[in-house]
Amino acid sequence: MADPCPSSCWADLPSDLLGRILQLLELPEALSVASVCMSWSTAASAAGVPRSHTPWLMSWSDDLLVNDSKGRACCTDFRSLLDTYKVYDVTLSRGCSLAWCGSSHGWLGAADELSNLLLCNPFTFATIPLPPITDLGCVEAVRDCEGSIVGYLPGKKQNRVGVKWIGRWFYHKVVLSCDPSQNGNYTAMLIHYYANQISFAVAGEGCWRLASTIPQQNKDRYADCVFHRGRFYALTLCGTLELCFSPVVMGNS
């Protein structure tokens, strides 16, 4: 007796049906569909799904918080630089949506609800926690009687800052030496405090190390940092370019 429901090949799905499905998917899922096979890739391209290595513009607002069964709670808008008029949705975890402080090698630098830094991949939803804010040395945690962190004391100031509030201004930019998903051997460089300190964290060490400081009385501040040919560089507002360190050398010292 013939099988009334013979098996069919997913690659043979009509392109118009795939196109309608793609319109209902968020960006990470649409990119996954495009990588299944040649026919699905062609359908995704016809539906306007860009390639995964396309540069993206991202926008985010406190008003876009939602709740779902997957525990993801922040809806962000992504626009491809090849077509800035088309908007794609990406829903991220509420825990990594408090504040953003840079993007590097496809990963976002974010502050969680305790204002600790983590790396977030918006397409795979993978997260990598970086050492806590209290490890930077210029921030002290304030705890309640149960040991939970309820605030922070930044620098020499004795005024307590809210757990969530400090993450919105304390971090200025985080840059990575490479993609953490390649081999896990990366270094994160961070401009922080009042943009007058630079620290770095090597994967697997679990701590921040201070690399450079501009005195508070100095009017200059760090404006940007980059990783180029195996070394980190920092640029100040007054135009000074500093060679901060080489993660290979510092990691083996």
Automatic annotation (TrEMBL):
Lineage: superkingdom: Eukaryota
Pfam families according to UniProt: Beta-prop_KIB1-4, F-box-like
Transmembrane segment boundaries: none
InterPro entries found in the cross-reference section: F-box-like_dom_sf (IPR036047), F-box_dom (IPR001810), KIB1-4_b-propeller (IPR005174)
Record domain KIB1-4 beta-propeller: where: 85-243
Coiled coil: none
The protein's name: F-box domain-containing protein
